Amino acid sequence: MVRKSIVMDKHLLYAVDRFARKEQRDFSNAVRYATRIGLIALDNPELTVGEIKDILEAQVDLESKNVSELNPDEL
Question: Is residue 60 a part of any domain in this protein?
Answer without folding.
Answer: yes
